[in-house]
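Input record (Table S2, row 717):
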Amino acid sequence: MEISFAREAQMLRRGQGELFHGEGILAIAKALLQSGVAYVGGYQGAPVSHLMDVLVQSKDYLADLGVRVEACANEASAAAMLGASIHYPLRGAVTWKSIVGTNVAADALSNLASPGVTGGALIVIGEDYGEGASVIQERTLAIALKSSLILLDPRPELGHMVRMVEEGFALSEASNTPVMLQLRIRACHVRGSFACKDNVAPAMSANHLTEAPAPFDYERLSHPPSTFRHERLKGAERLPAARRFTVERRLNEVFAGRREDLGLVVQGGLYNSLVRALQQMGLADEFGDGALSTLVLNVTCPLVPEEIRDFCLGKRAVLVVEEGQPEFIEQEIMATLRRHDVNTPVHGKDLLAMAGEYTVEVIAQGVAEFASRYLPDSPLAEGRAWLAAIATRRAAVLAQLAKPLPARPPQFCVGCPERPVFAALKLLQQDMGRVHIAADIGCHSFASFEPFSSGHTILGYGMSLASRAGVSPVMSRRTLAIMGDGGFWHNGLLSGVQSALFNGDDAVLIILKNGYTSATGTQEIISTPDENHKAHARDKHESLVHTNVAIERTLKGIGVRWLRTVDSYSVDAMRATLEEAFTTEFPGLKVIIAEGECQLERQRRVKPWMAGLDKAGKRTVRVKYGVDEDTCSGDHSCIRLSGCPTLSLKASPDPLRVDPVATVLDGCVGCGLCGENAHAATLCPSFYRGEVIRNPNWRDRLAAGMRHAVLSLFQPA
Ligand code: SF4
Ligand code: SF4
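Output record (iron/sulfur cluster complex):
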């Protein structure tokens, strides 16, 4: 990847007493090193991508320290990496995006949780839930509960988050249980400072090799009959040990309020939003000191019954602020109080929304309801007016709109190589009829929006080919699965290709080979073009991805017999190849590799290089496309076939034509799709290709002069 984390990597080296300033997720990276972690692995994904990115870019320093970093093929391989901590006193950490990544890792996690660990095992979970989420709305807590894992949900303050990482490793060792550290989107991106400690080199590492593997111990295998003992240990020893550690180290926090007769119980990650909501409702001052005492659950699994009992005892009522459904924590608190014969009324989902992100506004509404029942004299008027003003503003904006605003869905980047593939698919379906399209996770899922509206289902990362297996047999026309190269390596090769070959499936698969896992931040994969080719081809307009044929070799090796490679930008060739795949007599799996380098990555490489040449006074050529406004027929079929954000509209210069004409904005990177579409769909001949030459040489000046002279003969000024 071309993004540099050099500055952040430097901060990882800071020692005792120095100040670290930055994002929450980068503070976690520093905390891992301060904790003596021996190995780190993971699979990138928002909101935790930067954790792996900065560590991968710090590999040399980490190697000196003796820390091993692995960019894992998927979350399952990351979870399996924690197997090192089962026998050995090695502290290990892995990371991924949840809930999807946790689902992929679930098998390995169960098999890790069963025997338990010797060295501390920490799973840094990017909890991608709520208004900024990009995945299904489920919570990691359910996984922790079913596998008897420990779940930390730290209050989002950098110093506290760092402490929870350090305590998390110790907690894992004290209870022989893997620990999940859940970071919500806001916690990953919260900014702040903390005083560093020195990094700790692990005692066992590549720098300090160990002579002998651990002795054979059947009890450490997640095999029956060991598993029966493991299940008993979880309940009888490990979780009680985790609860003891939680109490001794005061991992959960109680913030006393002015009133002790009412209480709030909140997941640690929601604490900042709760304080803001209390301030808005006049129930906390500007320093966050509140009217109500608050139990902050930095450990949400397992809960400590005695802590819950002691906090609730003697209170008139308690409000549980718990995001997501079902309300596991609220139910457990109720059961705990019943067991201890404490009759404090417990509120939660009866006053707060069952589903969705607990924003300040949502929490404030619940707090207002709670306070009006139990604090009728509290000064809620201002807070209620604030809530009402938000509602009024929202209603006013809606009322002003004659009709709802058009949706502005995410888009392919300008010049993306995946856009032309969907243009070709659209053209094919116009001629051949619609086909069932199994879509996948990745940038190509943007094709599910206008103008392509392509894709019937998305079942998971790399799962498209597998997800059409039940559809293919009932369709008169072949089905199409689309996946990216990231999805292919993550899961698609085995779940999709291997299965389709083994079952003799008759289906078509497009693999969008752009060279990176682009949607997660253009991280590199095994089929990424190598650095030498990148260095030698900066100024070339051709795709670089053909320089790495790992996917092609793998497909041939596994037995794919119908395989075509097509340049992504060649719309006509892609349409023809798709047509062949849908009509050929060949009965098995047909794979089309659409080859075109991720434009975002390419521009990151090319732009600084071009700027350097410009500055040095050297000749550079940039290709741009344009629309001749006199020729444009105004039917906008080019826009419906492209969706490129730089292909836009402007008023027609002809006063006799009311329809706007198409225009190409400045952002055009000259990918060539406009010309390809015009040719493949036989559009009006209004597109032209231009070259912007900087620092022209004498030949350029001579050619320009001659052109100008000829044109001025026909178009006198
Ligand atoms: S990141 Fe790359 S693959 Fe993704 S939309 Fe942008 S250009 Fe296309
Ligand atoms: S050539 Fe067309 S599709 Fe490509 S970047 Fe320019 S305007 Fe967009």
